[in-house]
Write a structure and sequence with these properties.
The protein is mainly alpha-helical. It has one domain: MetI-like (MetI-like fold, Orthogonal Bundle). The protein has eight helices and no strands. It has helices at residues 3-39, 44-59, 62-77, 85-111, 115-123, 128-158, 170-181, 185-211. Helix 1 (3-39) packs antiparallel against helix 2 (44-59), helix 2 packs across helix 4 (85-111) and helix 7 packs antiparallel against helix 8 (185-211). The N and C termini lie far apart (53 Å).
Length: 217
């Protein structure tokens, strides 16, 4: 198999990889916020549930979570799933997993806001909701951007874990070609693709960080 053919096959898998990456961010970034708020809630039951959720998601392998979510409909409820469910299971698993990490990042950002700002907002007549949306959230997002960047870059590499349920993303395609051709070339080519993808994502994240940096000179 020529390098050109390998490149074309990997490009087909790259589309799936990018889809997993973008859809995971689309769902996990907003989902992390209510989980963080639940974790910080004064209601002990709600806080405990959120704490257990975060602990399980962060304390167990993402690959295991993908496998469990894929097989749960059949072994848990006797529902037969189609091959198309593989991709859905991957998105669900990735979104739930990364939402837990983002929740902890959000929590640290919210707790870093000085208490005096809440008191000042109260004096100015802001409601609790207005204080959070207009004062706390903008500052929180600025403070957590570097930590979020690290997680987003990690997500690029973690997309390869979807091979666990034979989702045809780039790493899965590279493994199949490598096994068929008895060559490391497809895997090396996949490594180059991941590096370029990661490099582009890192540049974009750094530009966003720089735009909202508190300490711009």
């Amino acid at each position: 198999m020529t390098l050109e053919v390998i490149f074309l096959k990997l490009m087909s898998g790259m589309g799936v990889t990018v889809s997993i990456f973008l859809l995971t961010l689309l769902f996990s970034i907003p989902l992390g916020l209510p989980i963080a708020l639940a974790r910080m809630s004064k209601h002990k039951v709600l806080s405990a549930i959120a704490g257990v959720y975060i602990s399980v998601m962060r304390g167990t392998p993402l690959m295991l979570q993908i496998i469990v979510i894929y097989f749960l409909p059949f072994y848990g409820f006797g529902i037969n799933v189609t091959a198309g469910y593989r991709f859905i299971a991957v998105i669900i698993a990735f979104s739930l997993n990364y939402a837990a990490y983002f929740a902890e990042i959000y929590r640290s950002g919210i707790q870093s806001i000085p208490k005096g700002q809440y008191e000042a907002a109260q004096i100015l007549g802001y409601s609790g909701f207005q204080t959070f949306v207009l004062i706390v959230m903008p500052q929180m997002f600025k403070r957590v951007l570097p930590a979020m960047t690290n997680e987003i870059i990690t997500l690029v590499k973690d997309t390869s874990l979807s091979f666990a349920i034979a989702t045809a993303e780039m790493f899965t395609m590279a493994k199949q070609i490598a096994a068929k051709e008895a060559s490391l070339m497809p895997l090396m080519a996949a490594g180059v693709f991941y590096y370029i993808f990661n490099f582009i994502v890192a540049i974009i994240c750094k530009k966003v960080e720089k735009k909202y940096d508190y300490y711009k000179i």
